Fold these 2 entries.
Entry 1:
Amino acid sequence: MTTDTLLATPTYEQDFWSDEVVLNPYPTYRTLRDLGPAVWLSRHEAWAITRHAEVRAALANPEVFSSARGCMMNDPMNTAFVGNILCTDDPEHQQMRKTFARPLMPAAVGVLKARMEELASEQVDRLMEQESFDAVVDIGHHLPINVVSELVGLPEDGRRHMLDWAAGSFDAFGPLSSPRTITGLEVAQEAARYTRGIDPARLAPKSWGTALFQAAERGDIAEAQARSMMMGYVAPALDTTINATSSAIWLFARNPDQWARLRADRDLMPGAINEVIRMESPIRAFSRYVTRDHEVGGVVLRQGARALMLYACANRDERNYPDPDRFDITRRARDHIGFGYGTHTCAGMHLAKLEMTVILNALADRVAAFEIVEEERRPHNTLRGLHRLIVRATPD
Ligand code: HEM
């Protein structure tokens, strides 16, 4: 960056990863959007792309906004993730994605629905006998932990650590100035060691993990790719969906009229899920590497810069969503970018939506209203969500 470029540049000088911003990001997001569609984060030496139209355009333009030099905010992670599906560009990326996404297509995940409904129904019945429950652990964890771990086929030692590895790795996406990044890096290294060392013979037969190693044997993908893709089923699948589900209950508890509407008309479910992801996007931002000088909103992003795609900020953009802080399940929110956009659009989106649909339906069958007893947010570099959400559910 030259000084004369900076003079004309909208600039934000605070720490974007401070506890304060992470725990209550929405005022900062509004400030950033008001400053411009591309804002220089001077403390982190990176751009933030803030508004809906510009984030979408950037995600649709991987030739300029490349993933191949990493999507994180620090060199150790960007180097460690070289070759990971998230951190490659097309055509290599699409080649990997063909194998990876096979079990995650709508028809393939649809087969899981009946089993999920059974698990969800039993769990909600159990919870309705209690005076209160934790919507994060008792509801949010239930399907991702039980279903995903079974499908991936990890042995018991891997399953036990999955949640910690996933949350730690996402914390490590932050800048090195954040203590959470440093702690996260240690956890990410532990997860990487496990992934490198896993013996394919210990994976459950017919599991997604085994299918990846079979694809490697056929020569469709490299063995190292099979290992990293296996964790690609785990790391991004857990806290994202867990946070989205518990955020849904938090939003419905605070907006009982919306819960009543959903209960009365289940056709509103797909729209309700989009609105939850729009309002409380579980992933705040991933970054891209700028491959050549490129203008956004009158400022030039120089080749070699890092640009953050602020999904969560764009999803509250008043230029695209009237009254963006209002939770309205009938809103047209299909164009939200909480699952990303373009070639890296979330590969697990159909699974996540199915898990949320099944659990919310099971609750809607039995719960007339939620009352929040206690809530605790979790400060996290990449993920937005609750650590604890104790609720009392009024039965029908
Ligand atoms: C509500 C839940 C979820 C949310 C909000 C979410 C969000 C996202 C976002 C924003 C991206 C885009 C990354 C980018 O632009 O670089 C992404 C990519 C990805 N997600 Fe998800 N995700 C969720 C659930 C899942 C699940 C359940 C899985 C796996 C089973 C998964 C696997 C992936 C993978 C592998 C990618 C990278 C895709 C690629 O690079 O082509 N996600 N997700």
Entry 2:
Amino acid sequence: MSLALTLTLAAGCGTPPPPGGHRRSPSPAQSNDDWAIIQQKLIAQGQALLAGDEAGWMAPVDPGNAALVEHYRNLFRILRALQVTRWDPEFTMSIPPILAHGQAPNVHIDMWYCFANATCPAPTKETRYLHGPTPRFRMVVDFGLRVSSGGYLITAVKQPKGDHHAGRPLPWESADLTVATGDRVIVAAAPGQQERLPVAVAAAERAAAATDRYSTLLGAPRPPRYIVYLAGDREWRTWNGGSPGANYAGYAYSASSHQYEVVVRTSARNDLTALLRHEFGHVVTSHGTTRAGAEIYDVNQWLTEGIAEYIEAGGRPATAGPTIAAARQYLRASPRMRTLGLEPLPRNATATQVAAFYGISHLAVDCMARRFGERNLFAFFATVVRESQGPFPASERAYGQDWEDVQRACITDIYRAVGL
Ligand SMILES: [Zn+2]
């Protein structure tokens, strides 16, 4: 499964009205000073996080709020374990919040962040409203004035209604993850999944060793590390808004063009290494590309799933795989295929539809690999998916053949492969 869950919503964020009750008009000058102090506290908090300074990270948090203190302590532990390399707040309010004694104004922030990426770039004007290389998420922080501590402190933190992501919470926003690290992977387990961590790290390392080489084949940058979240059934239904539903065992999602992360549902499949080869196949072939819009209607889904199945199979043909029976059944019951590019799966696709789609897509990719070689197959993939050009120019360039001829030959091969 491949879901690019990030939407580019250029939603402006106005200043919210202050809560009801008594209002005092703050002195504008003082308000601006206070606003500058609040911004500086959040910037310093991020710098403390990157420096591993927990006391500095906790400094702006209201110590009288035990739940909030625990939330921030957990977040510090998880973000450090995920090897956070950027945590920069951008203040999205066009005018400063109203600051008055006795009130806790909402401060709206876009937080730019990176995990395990030493070269994570600072956001630029060009990438700000596009699906750029630096991930971000939106948060709302309340700052209340605490006279005892002599200044403004964080008194609440909330998820906003609108966000760049299709669904929240993001997996790492869960307060109770347990994180383990390998050479090429970071694996974070939801509660109840911790005992799987040693096996999962070993499986992820094996999968990474198998998938890393495709970066070279694509001429693409290698993902710095593969990041995996182990979800129980409860987290599967909530993380990233509950995508992609009950008929899937895992998915790769895009936090940015340079940070694809993987979620697996541990109850769905036993062969974790194979499942991770498939999802890492999505990560390695997508890393460094913008696939914005693909979550709405991915015209290349047959190719992205076919290539992920091909990578998962690691040289074994689709005819030896578990989806072949569903593919055969579908082909026998449907009008003859006219193009290799199947219609993208509907959101409510049944398990049988999904299996048939994966099986036929895998057969199509196998055909191209057999006829033109693996190197040319990946050149074709790079042109279609990474460069967003259609299969017609890609086929001319990578295979030296007209796409219509390639499709005709591969459709014949597919029917023959399933004995029809
Ligand atoms: Zn997939």
